[in-house]
Amino acid sequence: MSGVREVEAVFREERGRLLAALVRRFGDLDLAEEVTSDAIEAALKHWPVEGVPPKPGAWLMTTARRKAVDRLRRDQAFAARLAILQVEADRAAHAPPADADGELPDERLQLFFTCAHPALPAEDRGALTLRCLAGLTTPEVARAYLVPVQTMAKRIVRAKKKIREARIPFRVPGADELPERLPGVLQVIYSIFTEGYAASSGPDLQRLDLAEEAIRLARILRRLLPSEREVAGLLALMLLVHARRDARTGPDGEPVLLDEQDRGRWDRDLIEEGSALVMTALSGRPPGAYGVQAAIAALHDEAADLATTDWPQVVALYDVLLALDPSPVVALNRAAAVAMRDGPEAGLALLDELAGEPRLRGYHPYLVARADLLHRLGRLPEAAAAYRAALDVAGSEPERVHLRRRLAAVEES
């Protein structure tokens, strides 16, 4: 069993690199996935007996490349391409399949930008990223998005077809394109994390597997783009938020609010790592939105309790964030911070100003924030109505249980 576990650990680390290298070599995502699976299957057969080779990535690449050529020879649909691909395969066969140190070249950055290409539907980008870069199976991706496996399989096939038919290039955008394209990649990773942080539906408040996959993807991206400060900012933000994971739910799985969390259960190693990355994200040029959000998260994580949180600084950072991202969601979060700095009446006034925003209509966090402030002000009938509205749109079952209890407390007051 230990041999199998060792092989699986190597597979987890090498799969994305291998897939990216094969897409680069053969120009076909489906073919690359098939022969990646074939190579892994061969490794699972041989390595537990023979041992993991010193350069597992190079072994997998050699095996996968041979299997790709074999498949192309058998498949008449690829006959027209085979001669061209065979030239490339033959050239590669006489060249080292790795870099100067014998390691498989890391071409995952190209795969990040392919999976997050703006030509793909937004719902497909995250699914394809989890499938190709995180290495999740189609059933695992389906569970992540809480859709039937058949639905997810069709979605992934559709995305691959779009890549093929639209001839979406497998490449890193040029320096002039990167500022426009990188935010899309970051948004895909962050959307995966936010679904893990607060599940949109289902029996659990948190999906820790998804949150951790998003962090792993961000770590890869950080290694590939070490000079991009917003990559550092996104990773910092996720680490600082994920550090509170163990304290965010009670024994029955219900949400534990920030002011009630046992901060001794927060992960100090993640907080330290995230705080150091904040300094990187905020250095140099004007900060980006992820860096500012990470700085806000750091202020929360570094405070001893809610009362000693530097709320004036939190509000000031939200002012900066609102200038960078003038969205009603940012304005909502700023209003909640103002309520902590200046009192619930000031916060509620700001929330009332946002009442007409279409994006906040039926938005669960807005309804909960308004209900909580009305409760704090003693306006109990209005608070009860707001809690009922929030309960109508709550996603996960733990959130619904939590809101029902808060509603009962207001009604009994």
From TrEMBL:
What is this protein identified as?
Answer: RNA polymerase sigma-70 factor (ECF subfamily)
Q: Does the keyword Magnesium apply?
A: no
Q: Which residues form the RNA polymerase sigma-70 region domain?
A: 11-76
Q: Which UniProt keywords apply?
A: Sigma factor, Transcription, Transcription regulation
Domain RNA polymerase sigma factor 70 region 4 type, chain residue ranges per copy: 115-163
Which PANTHER family does this one have?
BLL6612 PROTEIN, BLL6612 PROTEIN-RELATED
Which InterPro entries does this entry report, sorted A to Z?
Answer: DUF6596, RNA_pol_sigma70_r2, RNA_pol_sigma70_r4_t2, RNA_pol_sigma_r2, RNA_pol_sigma_r3/r4-like, TPR-like_helical_dom_sf, WH-like_DNA-bd_sf
In Pfam terms, one family for this protein is DUF6596
| Any one GO biological process | DNA-templated transcription initiation
Q: Which domain of life is it from?
A: Bacteria
Single GO term (MF): DNA binding
Record-annotated DUF6596 domain positions: 181-281
Which family is it part of? Belongs to the sigma-70 factor family. ECF subfamily.
Entry annotated with the keyword Transcription regulation: yes
